[in-house]
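Backbone shape codes:
***
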Amino acid sequence: MNREKEILELTPGSVSLSDLRRIYLGQVELRLAPEARGALRASQAAVQKIVDEDRVVYGINTGFGKLATTKIPPARLADLQRNLVLSHSVGTGPLLSDGVVRLVLATKAVSLARGHSGVRPELVDALLALFNSNLLPHIPAKGSVGASGDLAPLAHLSCVLIGLGSVTVEGEVDSITGAEALGSIDLSPFTLGPKEGLALLNGTQVSTSLALAGLFETEAVFAAGVLAGALSLEAIKGSVTPFDRRIHDARGQVGQIAVAGAVRALLEGSEIVLSHADCGRVQDPYSIRCVPQVMGACLDNLTHAARVLTIEANAASDNPLVFTDTGEAISGGNFHAEPVAFAADIIALAIAEIGSISERRLALLLDSNLSALPPFLVRDGGVNSGFMIAQVTAAALASENKSHAHPASVDSLPTSANQEDHVSMATFAARRLADMVENTAVVVGIEAMAAAQGMEFHRPLKSSSLIEAEFADIRTRVAFLEDDRYMATDIEAMRRWAMRMDWSETLSRLLPSARLSS
């Protein structure tokens, strides 16, 4: 029997990163804060006043883009908004994942409810009703340049509100039409009022949702990467001296200090560490010695991206924006997703580096000259190849991520007859994060599996209680490699290990200051 989900009340402008994470995971039902309804009604009334007074205002009674100088007569305003949705429904490619669509529905509702878009409260209610009923619009992933809003993908979302498009009932294979979806929650297709179609299409919600999904998945892989690094340090009997608090305090970098503290906490009480306390080992390779410096820098980037994306998820990114105190509708450029593109690009850098340093530690484990472990971590070498080719897979994926990490935000192609002459490419910047995270999860998973193998050669010595608990969890997923076997199943099991969404809870216990989703 399914537990009833907690109700999360959305207060526009105040939705936290933790709230957004729960929305992504489908852990809550949503309700709009009652006080937001007044702002919605006021902004819709301001738009209606503009129409009644026959003032010419972009997007309300004009064409769009290069056609902004074309005035539309009152009798055709409904056609204007409907045609806008239809003409912009040009997306292509695979559909966005359920979690991303949940974020799109929620953040679009939050943006509209800021009271600067001139839409009826009923439109926001419909978005939240779709969310709460697990009716997820089909939104093609490709077709947005991340400026003038995520026009094409948001048009596909908007199609559902006018009874068109397709909707998946979560957990079912077959889809239903937009009209059927609305009917199942006792709603009829909307006839869009002045500006409502434009308000639905304008905005950065798809780019932001994709970037948030990438952030949340990266948070998990980051935590797994810190743990894998500690496992590898134990496997090679590396020096803990470089993790001394004084070293990191002397530099002052926040993420570095936090990661060094996490590794110290992970290794506290380790018999393996004590076994070589007087070995004289001073300088391990950078992939071990500089875990705090590299992973700490990644953490700082992720923390910055989290702040930017939380702001954007709460933003009014429509155009024009309605200001009810003066009754004005002012054109601007809040739809330009440059902040999201930059945030996605630095998340990509972090993902690539987490995988890059992990692959180097894996290579170190397999090199007996550096690790003092059996070559390729297998006893009967020669007959057995051990982890030799698993490292090739890791190298391939780490290299692939380096290409993916090229910043998308530096590219731009003009659209709309050069009216929209500089765009952010934020949607692709954010969309490619999912593939990158998958790649890095495999790399980190292989490293952790290899490090666990290496630790077995030090038995009966044990590591700390924390490390031994994770070692035991790994052993429930993959067995010790005594002889060569089919490893693809093991690698998939370890990919899932690295993408555990409860990693963030583990990480928060070790370094509370580094909790991204707080």
Observations:
- The CA atoms of residues 123 and 161 lie 8 Å apart.
- The domain at 211-514 is CATH 1.20.200.10 (Fumarase C; Chain A, domain 2).
- The mean pLDDT is 92.
